[in-house]
Design goal:
alpha+beta, Nucleotide Exchange Factor Grpe, Chain A, domain 2, 3-stranded mixed beta sheet, elongated
């Protein structure tokens, strides 16, 4: 009967081994699932980081472009003022005409950078999103506010104002 007792004793030990293997497999599956979830979170975090860095680089590039353009605008303003005040005897001067051509060339260069001049011609409807009213004709009567005179040119970059046009407003 010793042989039978050995078989009976071996059976519970075999069951324990099978139970231990099942527990080990379950623990391995749990660790695997946990590591997979961690990897997915890490990938998602990295993708969010990459997108955020790309957006920050784009914003920094745009801010630098805007700052550079804003530094050039006073130069353009001064050239336009000089052209507007050319003496009569120099109107036909070749040099004066070439300086006047600079503004056209600068405007084309700015358009290449997606910079557009804001329309502020007399008679244009006043838009506070694009125009800054420096003077207002209190004596004028009418229902709509229109631009009477452009005092300083305004510009947009990519459709967003970077410098509002300074204007004199009247009613019509």
């Amino acid at each position: 009967m010793a042989k039978n007792d050995d078989v009976t004793d071996a059976q519970p030990e075999e069951d324990r081994w099978e139970e231990q293997e099942t527990n080990d497999e379950q623990q391995a599956a749990d660790v695997f699932a946990e590591l997979t979830a961690d990897l997915q979170r890490t990938r998602a975090d990295f993708e969010n980081y990459r997108k955020r860095v790309e957006a920050e680089k784009s914003q920094a590039r745009s801010a630098g472009e805007t700052a550079a353009i804003l530094k050039l605008l006073p130069v353009i303003d001064n050239i336009e003022r000089a052209i507007a005040h050319v003496p009569e005897d120099l109107q036909d001067n070749v040099w004066a005409k070439s300086v006047a051509g600079l503004t056209k060339q600068l405007d084309k260069s700015l358009e290449g950078l997606n910079v557009r001049r804001i329309d502020a011609q007399p008679g244009t409807t006043f838009d506070p999103e694009l125009h800054e009213a420096i003077q207002f004709d209190e004596d004028a009567e009418g229902d709509s506010e229109v631009i009477a005179e452009e005092l300083q040119a305004g510009y947009t970059l990519g459709g967003q104002p970077i410098r509002h046009a300074m204007v004199k407003v009247t009613r019509q």
